[in-house]
Every structure is written in C-alpha cells, then in structure tokens.
Amino acid sequence: MNKNNLLEPSKKSYLIIIFTIIALSFFVLGEILVRTNNKKCQNFDEDKNTVDNFVCIEITKPPMMFEVFPMGQEKQIFYIVGNANNQYVVKLPLCLHDKIMRNYKKDSENFKYKIEGTTTKIYDSLKNALIKTYNKEHKDNQIDSKNYNNYFGGTYIDGGKSPNFDIKLIFNLLGVFFLTIDIILICGNIFASKNIKSAIKKYSKENLERELNDSRTISYTKEGIYLTNKYVISNAFGFKVIPYEDIYWVYILKRKTKGITIGKDLMVCTKNKKTFSVATTNKVDILMEIINKICEKNNSILVDYTNENLKRYKGLIKSKEK
Q1: Which ranges of 204-306 does DSSP label H, i.e. alpha helix?
Q2: pTM value?
Q3: Rounded distance, CA 127 to CA 154, Å?
C-alpha cells in the first residue's frame, strides 16, 4: 500500500452505490412480491369465530383505541373499528395504525380502508375491556356477555399477522439494514475527509508525506497505525496525526459486547484532554510493541490504565492549564 494514499480521502463511492442499489432492490422486490403473490382474504363477516383464518374487512370509521391488561402479561393495545353495518376488534402494528390515520385525515368524509389479518381467539380480559369501551361510547345501545356475539363474535383480527404484511415487512427491514450501512459509509467518508483536510492544513501534505515515507517510519498496516519520526499517524478509526510530545498517557482498552471481548484498542490521551483510539487488534503483544515504540519517542508517557495513572494524568492536565 502506498503510504501517500493515507492522505487521500477513501474512495468508497462504489460501495455507497452498491448498497443503495441493494436497499432499493429490497424495497421494490417486497412491493412486487406482495402484489404478485397477494393471498386472497376471506370476508370476516362470513365467519367471526374460526381462528387462524386470513380475513379482511373494509372500515369507514377511524380506529378507537383501548387497553387490555391480561393477567400476568404486559399491557396490550387493541382498536374498535367499523363501517355502516358492523363493528370489529382489531390489533394493529403502530405503522399500520399510523397509515390508517393518515388516510383518514386526508379525506375523512370518503374514508375507506381495507384491513387484512389473521383471526385470533378473543380471551376473557379482552372481551371485558371491549364491552366496557363499547358501552362508554354507545350509551343508548349497551352490550353485555349475553348479546356480545351479536356484535363482535369470538375472534379478533391481528393486522400484524397478515401473510402480505409479513412479506413486505421482511423485505423492508432488509432494505433499511442496507440503507443504514449506506448512511454509515457516507458519514464515515465525510468525517474521514474532514479529518485529513484538517491534518494537512495543520501539518502540510509535504511534511506528512515525508514523514510517512521516511525509512525510519514503522508501519502497522493491519492495526491502522504508522509511527513516524515525529508523529503517531492513525487511520484505524478516522484519520489522526498526534505529535509524540502531545501524548501524556497510553493504555489498552478491551472492546466488549455482552461481556465478550471482540477487540482491543490502543488508546492515546493527549495534553489537550482528548482521547483517541489509534490502533486495533486482538493481539496484545502487538499493541505492547507499539506502546514501547511510542515510549521510545517520549519516555515520560504514562503506560497502562490504573487509578494512579488516571490521577497523574489529571494532574498533568491541571498543571498545563495553570
């Protein structure tokens, strides 16, 4: 690798284009699959008591929310919906509820929406909450456990368990995943470019090229760090140039996820009260070797993370501020 390439912003535009195409492909493919493999739903009014049926209803009234507290379980949200002839109880994902409300607000007078879902048995606490909510809204037409079936039946519609909804959700999630990677790459490119320009402005491109190409420069390409005669130059996490005399403290930090170590970083604390990760690897011996090389350039550097070194570092910062 040409070390001078470190001073050029990373050209990852091809990756951004690739991930954008992949993300858009998932969004489009999900829409196409829903339309081409659209499973035909049964009219819910034909059978309100059989579970696991894929059914649909057309509503002309906005959803009315109510809460259910099943024994020993978390609170659940349900909705009463309806049209001119019937009322229904449904469970809706938040995204679907929001979509329905957006349609209603656009044209409340001519509002119509088709809800699809899978029928699920109504349990006792849901039935009781449903009756209570209904009776609050319909003072002149009360229902109870005796005439309940004349209004709602034995099942509710779960709009989050529609085969068509599941297909679209899966492909949309994949699309969002690749779109997120895309955004991370774009932000990374902008951040790296900004850091490189800032370093060149401060130290000059000619000076940095001379330092990088000096025969005394020690390169740890895999770890993302270059030890020149004057500077620590790192591209492990963004681009950084740190003069040895600016370094007060170095130590190894373990990166963990759910208690499992996934990597080790070499951390550098400077006189400007800034902390940087300048190298990363799983090999402690490599990081210790790098630390020893850095300390050869500045033997006053504190080494290792201890309470004593933390106090000494804070003391050095305070003495500099005076």
Answers
A1: 205-212, 284-297
A2: 0.55
A3: 9
